[in-house]
Specification:
The chain is an alpha/beta fold. The longest helix is centred in the C-terminal third of the chain and has 22 residues, at 260-281. The strands form 4 sheets. Strands 2-8-7-6-5-3-4 form a 7-stranded mixed sheet, with helices on both faces. Strand 12 (327-328) and strand 13 (334-335) form a beta hairpin. It has helices at residues 18-30, 40-59, 73-86, 101-114, 131-139, 162-171, 243-258, 260-281, 312-318, 338-343, 362-376; strands at 6-7, 67-70, 92-95, 117-120, 145-148, 175-179, 198-202, 213-217, 286-287, 298-303, 321-322, 327-328, 334-335, 350-355. The protein has 11 helices and 14 strands. The protein is globular. 39% of the residues lie in helices and 14% in strands. Bound molecules: pyridoxal-5'-phosphate (PLP). Pyridoxal-5'-phosphate (PLP) binds next to helix 3.
C-alpha cells in the first residue's frame, strides 16, 4: 500500500474544514437571493450578509462598517494601495522588498502610472526591518505617505510588531497598511485598538474556500472602488457579494478563533520538532525563520548547495511530500523566491518552506525528515 501523502504547504492554501463544507451546503440550499434586491429573498440574503459581516468584525474587533468583502487577498491589497494613491493623495510609499508580489506589483504600477515615490527599507537575514530606519525615512516627510508592511511574511513567517510600527506611522502622520493575509485566523487582532489604517484577509488561508477575502479600511479613510458598477459594499467594491464564500469565511474564522491558544501551541510543537530533527539530520542547514519572532505555522530552511538541488521540491513531491520552494510561475515551474534572494543573496543552496496546520501531526514531521534524508543523501 502506498504511504499517505504529507501536505506541509498550508501557507499556500488550506483544505476546507468539514464543518465549513456542511455549512456551505446549508447556505446553498437556503440562501439564493441577491442581497441588493428589495423583495423577501433579497432581504434574507442581505441580512445573512450583514450577520456574517458582524461576526467577522467582532472576531477582528472592528466596526462592521470597516469591513469590505472582496474576491481575495490580492484584490484587497490592490484596492487599498491603488485607492490610497488615487483617493487619499498618497505620493510616497515606504515598504520592504520582501512583501507579497501582489503588493510589489502594485508599487511598480503606481510608480509608472502615478509617479508615486517608493522607498524600500533594508531587511536582515531573517527578513526583519529596522524600525529606526523607518523612523528616519519618515522624519523629514513632507509628502503624504503610506507605509505598507506585512504582518506575517508568507515565506519566512517573520513577524512585524504592528503596535510599534503603527505608532511610528501615527507620530509622523503616515497611513499604515498591513497585509495580514497570513496572520488572520492565527493571531488575535484588535483592529480598533491597533494603530493601523488598512489590513487584508483571504479565506483560503484559514480553511474556507478560495476567491473570497476582505479589506479592513478604518472609518477615517474613504476609498474609491477599483471595480465600478453597483453600490455593493457601500460603493467601495461593486459586484454581487459571494454569499457562500462569505458565510464559509465567517464560519471558518469563528472556528480558528474558538481554540486559538491550543492550536498555536500545537503549531509551535511541530515547528520545534522539525527544527530539531532537521538540524540533527542536516547540520549544514540555515534556518531562515527567526524563533520567537515568527509565526509557528511557517518554517523556512536553507539547504546547502549540491548537484541537483534545483529539483529538490520535485523529488520530494514524487516521494509524497508537498512543500514550497519558491513561487509557481505560469508554466508550472518554480521560480527563485524574491524573498530568499533578498535575505541570502550569495547563498547557492535552496530554501524550502514547510508550513503546518492543526491537521498536521508529529508522525508526519518524522516522515517528512525521512523523505528529505532519502532524497538528499
Ligand atoms: N498576501 C500574502 C501575504 C499572501 O500570502 C497571499 C497569498 O499567498 C496573498 C496576499 C494573496 O492572497 P490571495 O491568494 O487570496 O489573492
Amino acid at each position: 500500500m502506498q504511504a499517505k501523502r504529507i501536505y506541509l504547504d498550508y501557507a499556500a492554501t488550506s483544505p476546507i474544514l468539514p464543518e465549513v463544507i456542511d455549512y456551505i451546503s446549508e447556505i446553498a440550499k437556503t440562501i439564493f437571493g441577491n442581497p441588493s434586491s428589495t423583495h423577501a429573498e433579497g432581504r434574507i440574503a442581505k441580512s445573512f450578509l450583514e450577520e456574517h459581516r458582524k461576526t467577522i468584525s467582532s472576531l477582528l474587533k472592528c466596526n462592521s462598517s470597516e469591513l469590505f468583502f472582496t474576491s481575495c487577498g490580492t484584490e484587497s491589497n490592490n484596492l487599498i494601495l491603488k485607492s490610497s494613491v488615487s483617493t487619499l493623495g498618497v505620493k510616497r510609499i515606504i515598504s520592504s522588498p520582501i512583501e507579497h508580489s501582489c503588493n510589489l506589483q502594485c508599487f511598480k504600477w503606481l510608480q509608472k502610472e502615478y509617479k508615486t515615490q517608493v522607498d524600500f527599507l533594508k531587511v536582515n537575514e531573517f527578513g526583519q526591518i529596522d524600525l529606526e530606519e523607518l523612523e528616519s525615512l519618515l522624519h523629514d516627510n513632507s509628502q503624504k505617505t503610506l507605509v505598507s508592511l506585512m504582518h506575517v511574511n508568507n515565506e519566512l513567517g517573520t513577524l512585524l510588531n504592528l503596535e510599534e510600527t503603527g505608532h511610528i506611522c501615527r507620530k509622523h502622520h503616515a497611513l499604515f497598511h498591513t497585509d495580514t493575509v497570513q496572520g488572520i485566523g492565527f493571531f488575535p487582532y484588535n483592529f480598533s485598538e491597533l494603530p493601523i489604517d488598512f489590513a487584508s484577509g483571504s479565506a483560503h488561508k484559514f480553511y474556507a474556500p478560495k476567491s473570497c477575502g476582505f479589506a479592513y479600511i478604518n472609518n477615517q479613510n474613504i476609498l474609491e472602488p477599483l471595480l465600478h458598477g453597483g453600490s455593493q459594499e457601500r460603493s467601495v467594491r461593486a459586484g454581487t457579494e459571494n454569499l457562500i464564500g462569505i458565510g464559509a469565511m465567517s464560519k471558518a474564522l469563528s472556528y480558528c478563533y474558538s481554540d486559538l491558544e491550543n492550536r498555536m501551541t500545537h503549531l509551535e510543537q511541530l515547528n520545534l520538532q522539525l527544527r530539531s530533527l532537521l538540524s540533527k539530520q542536516f547540520p549544514d542547514i540555515l534556518i531562515n525563520s527567526p524563533w520567537h519572532a515568527s509565526s509557528p505555522k511557517i518554517l523556512n530552511v536553507q539547504f546547502p548547495y549540491f548537484e541537483g538541488i534545483e529539483l529538490l521540491t520535485i523529488k520530494l513531491d514524487i516521494e509524497g511530500l508537498s512543500v514550497s520552494g519558491g513561487s509557481a510561475c505560469a508554466s508550472g515551474a518554480e521560480t527563485a523566491s524574491h524573498v530568499i534572494s533578498q535575505i541570502r543573496p550569495d547563498h547557492p543552496g535552496k530554501a524550502i518552506r514547510f508550513s503546518f496546520s492543526h491537521l498536521t501531526n508529529s508522525e508526519e514531521i518524522e516522515r517528512c525528515v525521512s523523505i528529505l534524508a532519502k532524497v538528499i543523501h
